[in-house]
């Protein structure tokens, strides 16, 4: 996931047309993140974004059809790399404890590195345009489905009913979402972030201790 900050006029000399277009696109995404911080994406206008980036309003449409589509691109950026990294953690076939420790570490580092994106997600999943709220729900559901699939390969849950796997995945992902929001509330204070991470590890371990003793109904 990128964290664009440069305006398209900066350092554009020597770039190809495709590279300049991507630079402008990233600048538009960065502008939307900044402008949405105060009143949310619903309060951001196309003209505001164009003015912030330094392009004419019609140039916006070369990249996005609407502010809503721009919001969907921000949702995609926030989730795709996080889901990929969490999949990598689970695909290494570690023990439960290692999965928890590695997942919490990945989440903490990702929220720290992409704070603007996750502030956007935390705000827009309740207050954003309907399509953006729906996209965020969809991404969270994808996380749950992928986790349920991976849980089914582990000793213990491999004998569970699929419905029970989804229940556990829902609990875990819910805890992860809550942890991400607590990390944001820590506002970059390392001691506070460390406390949130440690509490998340304990919470997830408790959850899995109970889960490993669970038996699905026949």
Please sum up the structure shown:
With about 220 residues, the protein is mainly α. It has helices at about 15-40, 45-55, 55-60, 65-90, 95-115, 115-125, 130-150, 160-185, 190-210. It has 9 helices and no strands.
Strand content: under 5%
DSSP, total strands: 0
Q: What would you report as the Rg, rounded to the nearest angstrom?
A: 20 Å
Shape, per Cα inertia axes: elongated
User: How would you spell out the order of helices and strands?
Assistant: HHHHHHHHH
Biggest sheet architecture: none
Structural class: mainly alpha
Low-confidence stretches: 1-6
**Annotation field: number of helices:** 9
How does this structure look, described?
There is one protein chain. The chain is mainly α. Helix content is 73%, strand content 0%. It contains nine helices and no strands. The longest helix has 25 residues, at 67-91. The model is unreliable at 1-6 (pLDDT under 50).
Properties at a glance:
218 residues, mainly alpha, 9 helices, disordered N terminus
Write the layout of secondary structure elements.
Elements: H1 17-39, H2 46-53, H3 57-60, H4 67-91, H5 96-113, H6 115-127, H7 130-151, H8 162-185, H9 190-212
Helix pairs in contact: 1-2, 1-4, 1-6, 4-5, 4-6, 4-7, 5-8, 5-9, 6-7, 7-8, 8-9
């Amino acid at each position: 996931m990128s964290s664009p900050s440069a305006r398209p006029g900066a350092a554009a000399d020597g770039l190809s047309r495709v590279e300049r277009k991507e630079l402008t696109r990233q600048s538009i995404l960065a502008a939307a993140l900044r402008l949405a911080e105060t009143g949310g994406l619903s309060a951001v206008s196309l003209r505001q974004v164009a003015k912030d980036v330094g392009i004419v309003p019609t140039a916006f449409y070369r990249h996005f059809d609407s502010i809503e589509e721009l919001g969907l691109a921000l949702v995609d950026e926030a989730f795709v790399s996080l889901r990929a990294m969490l999949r990598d953690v689970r695909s290494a076939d570690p023990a439960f404890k290692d999965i928890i420790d590695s997942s919490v570490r990945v989440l903490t580092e990702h929220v720290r590195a992409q704070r603007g994106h996750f502030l956007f997600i935390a705000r827009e999943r309740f207050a954003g345009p309907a399509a953006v709220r729906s996209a965020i729900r969809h991404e969270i559901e994808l996380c749950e489905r992928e986790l349920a699939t991976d849980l089914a390969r582990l000793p213990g849950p491999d004998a569970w009913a699929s419905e029970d796997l989804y229940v556990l995945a829902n609990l875990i992902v819910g805890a992860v979402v809550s942890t991400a929001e607590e990390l944001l509330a820590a506002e970059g204070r390392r001691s506070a972030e460390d406390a949130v991470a440690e509490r998340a590890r304990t919470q997830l371990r408790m959850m899995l201790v109970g889960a490993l003793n669970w038996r699905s109904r026949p």
